[in-house]
Design a protein that fits this description.
Length: about 140
């Protein structure tokens, strides 16, 4: 993954370009922790050689894994970064398109880029915090924290 700071006026805006074979969730998490990001949001487009989507099963309180083992276009990727337990945590959702025009989406658990993934990430000067939610067990953004 390559990154470049493209704007700074109290908020920092980065362009991130992932290359073939990159795993975007781990790379983005490492980038976020290296720069101590929180209160950030991002969008992106590109393509994956494979992807694992997640669907939160409320009864089981866990993400069900949905593997898509084929080349797909990233039609929409959106997410945020907030601080939980002292670390920058990435939360991303994605919609991917198959060669027959069907779309599949969910929580982005893991993927491999092919040939590229282009993200624009904006960090606000105020960090957001995630705290465990009693009902779901998920770390959710708490605006009071």
């Amino acid at each position: 993954m390559k990154s470049k700071l493209i704007h700074h006026n109290g908020e920092r805006t980065f362009a991130l370009v992932f290359e073939t074979g990159d795993e975007p969730m781990s790379s983005l998490s490492a980038f976020a922790n290296e720069l101590h990001l929180g209160g950030s949001h991002f969008t992106g487009i590109g393509a994956f050689s494979d992807v694992v989507l997640g669907y939160f099963n409320w009864d089981r309180k866990r993400y069900e894994r949905i593997p898509v083992r084929e080349q797909v276009e990233v039609l929409s990727l959106a997410g945020d970064i907030a601080v939980a337990d002292g670390e920058s945590k990435v939360h991303a959702h994605v919609v991917v398109g198959k060669d027959d025009g069907t779309a599949h989406g969910g929580h982005l658990l893991e993927a491999h880029v092919r040939p590229t993934l282009e993200l624009v990430l904006v960090e606000s000067p105020v960090h957001l915090r995630r705290v465990p939610d009693a009902a779901s067990g998920l770390p959710l953004i708490d605006l009071e924290a």
